[in-house]
UniProtKB/TrEMBL annotation:
It comes from Helicobacter pylori. GO terms for molecular function: unfolded protein binding. It holds the Pfam family DnaJ_C. One of its GO terms (biological process) is protein refolding. Keywords: Chaperone. This is J domain-containing protein. One of its GO terms (cellular component) is cytoplasm. The keyword Chaperone applies. Residues 74-214 form the Chaperone DnaJ C-terminal domain. The lineage of its organism: Bacteria, Pseudomonadati, Campylobacterota, Epsilonproteobacteria, Campylobacterales. The keyword tRNA processing does not apply.
Length: 231
């Protein structure tokens, strides 16, 4: 211990002015280097002393400098009408509820970023990423920028033609139905679809007929007999 303290204090001067290599050569040849180092630094020699002094680096925790991912991703279910009209939706996450306006024309799978609604960490607060899922609807569906709307068409009007009023997503229309209209036949209303957010292209509205059959028990016997004969 005393020799180690002296070397720490005086360095090579403790060898009488010689550097360590000259001093080692001046010792008797039967004494190897490890014995010399052991006499100075103790059992284990210089390598053990260096190993002990370098442990601080291996024990250092670099994870504190790793970037934090504070963003949260969630699914937001919306209706076709929400994407047409830009309706507001109530969103609840992390015990927090807020109102969010749905962008008109937003598409399936698109992500909406809501700032400062993510997790809180040492570097601040992350964002909330809401992935849009457009739910199936009995009356409406989207095909890119086009809207398909189902409307009920009485059998009589389908057979003989006529006019029918239809409440669409933007206003009520009067549609002229030709005779012999078939089930699921489409009628195109130009430029009444959805406006594409990226290209500004406006799609079309397609009104698709769903035939409504009369209840057989409401028909007269004469009409039922005629239908059975003619159909």
């Amino acid at each position: 211990e005393e020799k180690r303290r002296q070397y720490d204090q005086f360095g090579d001067n403790m060898f009488g002015g010689q550097n360590f290599s000259d001093f080692a050569r001046s010792r008797r040849t039967s004494e190897d280097l490890d014995d010399i180092l052991s006499s100075i630094f103790g059992r284990g020699g210089f390598s053990q002393r260096f190993s002990q002094n370098s442990q601080g680096f291996s024990g250092f925790n670099f994870s504190n400098f790793a970037p934090e991912n504070l963003d949260i991703t969630a699914i937001l279910n919306v209706s076709v009408l929400d994407t047409l009209l830009g309706n507001k939706k109530q969103v609840s996450i992390n015990n927090e509820t807020f109102s969010l306006k749905i962008p008109i024309g937003v598409e399936e799978g698109e992500k909406i970023r809501v700032r400062n609604k993510g997790k809180t960490g040492r570097t601040g607060r992350g964002d909330l990423l809401l992935q849009i899922h457009i739910e199936e609807d009995e009356m409406y569906r989207r095909e890119k920028d086009d809207i398909i709307q189902i409307f009920d068409l009485p059998l009589k009007t389908a057979l003989f033609g006529g006019k029918i009023e239809i409440a669409t997503w933007h206003k009520t229309l009067t549609l002229t139905i030709p005779p012999n209209t078939k089930a699921m036949q489409k009628f195109r209303i130009k430029d009444k679809g959805i406006k594409n957010r990226k290209t500004s292209h406006v799609g079309d509205l397609y009104l698709q007929a769903r035939l409504i059959l009369p209840k057989v028990e409401t028909l007269s016997n004469e009409l039922k007999a005629l239908l059975e004969k003619e159909l």
